[in-house]
Design brief:
By secondary structure, this protein is α+β, with helices and mostly antiparallel strands. 52% of the residues lie in helices and 19% in strands. Strands 10, 11, 12, 13, 14, 15, 16 and 17 form an eight-stranded mixed sheet that branches.
């Protein structure tokens, strides 16, 4: 880049400033002179018009046109007036204009940059008698302005030239020459000659700058000397630290080489920088794969796939490579990689602050083998557990495996609702059936009843042949009343399902469909694990159990009998009918029993209209056993209402009907 001296830039800047000043003054002179002269011309025309209106009033009134002509001749003697004309009201016109008008019709010319136009009305006794029109040329005005501008420019140029010459001489003496001397000294010092003297002794700013430069030169000399000494010290320290780093690196290499884990370090470009022998042994075993620092991670990966050392699980090798590269570049956790038959490598990768990757490889084949064995044993135990669960009630099974019920010989007393059921005439039916048919029938019955029991939250205690023992209130309980209600609803559901099963069995060829008897009692029982340390059973014992069993024995086929203790809890929701007190074996006092109605009887039955006889028509043969049973319950309930509401004779008649 070409440089300019201060003198050249100073002179050029000064010339530009002088030119701008001359242009400014010339413009100002033209503006103000032109404005002043224009105002003077306009003022002169206005005066001529005013004087002419007065001076021409009498001649125009008397039609003394020679006087008017003489007056106009006097006006055009002014070189700025190029046209003077008077027009009377009768159309007479007197015109005087300069001879060099160049064919311009001044009668129609208007105000503009070239001409100034004025018109005035001549009035006599309030009447208009004529119009005077004057046109002045601005050409003379412009010539005068140009003359004044040239004069001002010449004077300005002379003054500014004098100032410029004086400024150049002064700048060369006090600015340019001292700065040139300072620049020479600075160039020598910049070239490395710090002994170059600076001889400026002026007291001005440049002299102060030269003094500061001398101080800076001395400081630089001292700094260079200090840097030279520091450099020598630094070189000695670098040699020392290099030796220490080399020793530390060797220790790191020895430590990495002695570890049982595979180690590899890749830089930010995924190039292998450092690895130990175990890295190669774990990944490539005894193969001839040539892996060395300087290879990229992708190259090493492709070598392993090429020699079938990495199991891609019969997938697309390219897809496997892309997934592995993604995990390598964005590691989130350890990954397992299968390398050959029965060999598993755990790879843990971590990013360093500079973008590199540290990878640690561990042989987890033994752990993977143990994990597989453990998984197989776990599956086996789960299958065994599922098999054993069929020998326990779901609640008991869940409490044992959840840890809420400890398997030990222990029991406690609780108020439970106990359920007993068996099949009427099962022994005779069994004698008439083959064992396979009997087994299928019994299993079908017990399966259906067990589903209903589990759906109602019951604890199935045991199956004794065709008999089922169930209880509510342990290990889970919703309260004594809710447990009793759940047990009664379960018994009703079983009775209804039994009716449906009878239809199925009848169609299957069983002549006498099975019917069950049910007994329910609510009382305190002892519940828990009974037996020995090697063989125990979770069951219930006590008077309440015996009472429920006796109620079941006393029930008729298809009947559900409950004790008063159970009836007290369920009577609000489930209709029951008293069957009086009965004597049962093993209990020294009579027990008041109630029969649960298995039909869905409305809460409010419609009242009978006794004013007219009623007729009920029913096709009994078209009813199923379930519909027939529900209808019997409804009729019995209606007869009971009639006997209570009617008088003696009417009640007897109703019962007879």
């Amino acid at each position: 880049m070409q440089t300019q001296s201060i003198s050249t830039r100073f002179n050029l800047t000064l010339a530009i400033i002088v030119a701008l000043i001359m242009l400014f003054f010339a413009g100002a002179a033209i503006h103000f002179t032109g404005q002043r002269n224009s105002e003077a011309l306009d003022e002169k025309l206005d005066n001529y018009i005013n004087i002419s209106r007065v001076g021409l009033e009498a001649p125009m009134w008397n039609f003394d046109f020679p006087i008017v002509e003489g007056y106009l001749d006097s006006l055009v003697l002014d070189k700025s007036i190029v046209f003077a004309g008077v027009t009377s009201t009768d159309g007479s016109e007197i015109v005087r204009e300069m001879s060099d008008s160049q064919g311009i019709d001044f009668r129609t010319v208007s105000e503009g940059p070239d001409f100034s136009v004025r018109e005035g009305t001549i009035i006599h006794d309030g009447n208009e008698i004529g119009i005077i029109r004057l046109v002045a040329s601005r050409e003379a005005l412009r010539r005068e302005i140009l003359t004044n501008t040239v004069a001002i420019g010449i004077v300005t140029l002379l003054v500014l030239s004098t100032i410029t010459l004086a400024s150049v001489l002064i700048s060369r003496r006090y600015i340019v020459k001292p700065l040139a001397d300072l620049q020479k000294s600075a160039s020598a010092i910049g070239a490395g000659n710090l002994e170059t003297p600076i001889k400026l002794t002026a007291k001005d700013e440049i002299g102060q700058l030269a003094g500061s430069f001398s101080v800076m030169r001395e400081s630089i000399r001292q700094l260079i000397e200090e840097l030279r000494n520091a450099n020598e010290t630094l070189e000695a320290r670098v040699v020392e630290r290099t030796s220490e780093v080399t020793a530390a690196r060797q220790k790191l290499v020895d430590a990495i080489g002695s570890t049982s884990e595979g180690f590899a370090f890749f830089n930010a470009d995924d190039t292998l920088i450092l690895h130990n022998d175990q890295y190669l042994r774990l990944l490539y075993g005894d193969s001839n794969v040539d892996v060395a620092p300087g290879m990229s991670f992708e190259e090493i990966l492709r070598l392993g796939i090429r020699d079938e050392l990495i199991d891609v699980e019969a997938g697309d090798p390219e897809e496997f490579i892309q997934k592995r590269l993604e995990l390598h570049r964005n590691p989130v956790s350890s990954i397992l990689q299968k390398r050959g038959k029965g060999k598993w490598i755990q790879i843990s990768e971590t990013k360093t602050s500079d973008g590199g990757t540290v990878a640690v490889f561990s042989d987890v084949s033994e752990l993977k083998l143990r994990e597989t064995e453990l998984t197989e044993k776990t599956v086996m135990l789960e299958n065994l557990s599922n098999q054993l669960a069929k020998y326990l009630s779901p609640q008991i099974y869940a409490s044992i495996f959840e840890g809420t019920n400890e398997v030990k010989l222990a029991a406690n007393r609780k108020k439970l609702t106990v359920f007993f059921s068996d099949i009427e005439g099962f022994t005779e039916t069994a004698e008439r059936m083959e064992s396979e048919e009997l087994t299928s029938l019994l299993n079908n019955y017990l399966t259906e009843m067990s589903k209903i029991a589990i759906d109602h939250g019951a604890t199935i205690d045991k199956y004794v042949g065709d008999a089922i023992v169930i209880f509510f209130g342990d290990p889970d309980s919703n309260g004594i009343k809710e447990d009793a209600l759940a047990c009664a609803k379960m018994a009703i559901a079983m009775s209804e399902r039994m009716t449906e099963l009878q239809d199925q069995w009848r169609k299957a060829g069983i002549l006498e469909p099975l019917k069950c008897r049910i007994g329910i009692h609510t009382d305190y029982c002892t519940v828990g694990n009974f037996g020995s340390e090697s063989r125990m059973d979770y069951t219930i014992i006590g008077r309440g159990v015996n009472t429920a069993a006796r109620l079941e024995s006393a029930a008729e086929p298809g009947q559900i009998l409950v004790s008063y203790a159970t009836h007290a809890h369920i009577s609000d929701e489930i209709p029951c009918e008293s069957r009086g007190k009965i004597e049962v074996k093993g209990i020294p006092y009579p027990i008041e029993v109630f029969e649960v109605s298995t039909s869905q009887v409305p809460a409010q039955r419609p009242a009978l209209d006794k004013s007219s006889p009623k007729k009920l028509t029913l096709d009994v043969d078209a009813l199923t056993d379930t519909e027939r049973k529900k209808f019997v319950g409804l009729v019995e309930a209606l007869l009971s209402d009639l006997s209570k509401d009617g008088e003696g004779g009417e009640g007897d008649a109703a019962r007879k009907s």
